[in-house]
Amino acid sequence: MSKITFLIFEKSYLIRKGIVTLIEEFENCEIIFEYNDIENIHSLIKQHKPNAVIINLALFNFIPINLITRIRNELHCAIMAIGPDFESLKSEFIDEYLYYFDDKSELLKRLKHFVDNLKRTESLGKNPGIKKTDHELSEREKGVVILVAKGLTNKEIADTLFISIHTAMTHRKNIARKLGIKTASGITVYAILNKLIDMKDLK
Amino acid sequence: MKSTSLIKANHALANVIHTDFTLLSVIKRFDIKLGISDSTIREICENYNISLAFFLEILNAYHDKNYFATKKLQSFSIQLIVNFLKSSHHYYNNEKILSIERQIQKLEWDSPDHERNLTILKKFFNEYKNEVKAHTGHEEETVYPYAIFIEESCSKNENIEECISKMQNYSITNYAKEHDNIEEKLKDLKNIIIKYLPPPSNQNILYEILSELFLLEKDLSDHARIEEKILVPKILEMEEKLKQKI
């Protein structure tokens, strides 16, 4: 099996070395290079073709979106962000996070999850930058989308479909994850664009 | 100057702009005109009579998500912060959002779905626009005046009783929860455009709208961070002081 390779972009020498130590705990993993800024990040990734980059969040935020998309989609590189906290950030471009203040077991757990995904996609020869989650809505979920679009609350949806409110909420969560759309108004737009309901049915 | 380093008084503002162009929208809100040659931030602040320390804090807070102004924030008046936040609101409501709305109007589809696509997009954006307006309006009518009243009473040591009764009706602790829905709608809109909207014949406009949405999102989240990390703690501190005076 070929090695999983990483590039690291982190300003702090101390933190870089911390990451290296953690990565060394995993078999078949190799850090190709470490950098303390993101100059030429695109050409570096192009040149070294790593499976993933581990990058400081503050640095990551300076990469223009179009470059991030290219790194992920053209260079098939997964992204792990590291930082003190991610309260205000839930970027869809980041595959996994490591928090500065997590304890070792939590750090290893997250890294293992990340590395396992990389290994799986590597062996499948698939694009590791894109999560292989199923984005298709099930028939049941489509039904829920229609009810949400018609303006029903979770409680009303539960009553209509003879399911518990808890199940209704789970459907809502899964729909949000699959579509990348959370709000009821957003789901309504989706339903109309995909002809699940007609404009006339809107209140 | 490196991309993540601290912005300081002796830096030329021109270089700062080159390093992080997203700061342009902030600089504009201080009514600074371009044509600044190599003037330093200090010189510009003197010319325009802007508080240097405050301007630097705002630039750094927008420039670096992880920058926290906890030590220095005590030195600005709430009025100064509120004025800036209000000018940001004006920028969102009367410039940014209106210009995105005008762009949406221009979208065209060659298919019979033209009317449907445009209507549903306009409807969604209109809801968003009204939510932002309601939210900023609430802040300007309720939160900011409350903050300023508390600050004045605290510094002049008067109206303590009125303050306390106001505090019982409205404490700033309620406040931090109110930002989420606006953020979610904007995220949804980005995904609708990226993933689900059938491509219009004038694709370029859609790309422009999308870039504008990303910039607006960044600006709004920086704005919220200034409220949550600077304004709220400052008011909480004063609420505590006032409680001790009774």
Describe it.
- The complex is a heterodimer of chains A (about 200) and B (about 250).
- Helices cover about 50% and strands about 15% of the residues of chain A.
- Chain A is of the alpha/beta class and about 200 residues long.
- Chain A has two domains: about 5-125, Rossmann fold; about 140-200, Winged helix-like DNA-binding domain superfamily/Winged helix DNA-binding domain (Arc Repressor Mutant, subunit A).
- A five-stranded parallel beta sheet of chain A has the order 2-1-3-4-5.
- In chain A, helix 6 packs across helix 9 and helix 7 (about 155-160) packs across helix 8 (about 165-180).
- Chain A is elongated, with a radius of gyration of 21 Å.
- The termini of chain A are far apart.
- In chain A, about 30% of the residues are buried.
- Mean pLDDT of chain A is about 85; it is low at about 125-130.
- With about 250 residues, chain B is mainly α.
- Chain B has two domains: about 15-65, no CATH class; about 75-245, no CATH class.
- In chain B, about 70% of the residues lie in helices and about 0% in strands.
- Chain B contains nine helices and no strands.
- In chain B, helix 6 runs parallel beside helix 9 (about 205-245), helix 7 packs across helix 9 and helix 8 (about 180-195) packs antiparallel against helix 9.
- The longest helix of chain B is centred in the middle third of the chain and has 43 residues, at about 115-155.
- The radius of gyration of chain B is 21 Å and the shape is flat.
- Chain B starts with 12 loop residues before the first helix and ends with a helix.
- Chains A and B meet through helix 3 and helix 9 of A and helix 6, helix 8 and helix 9 of B.
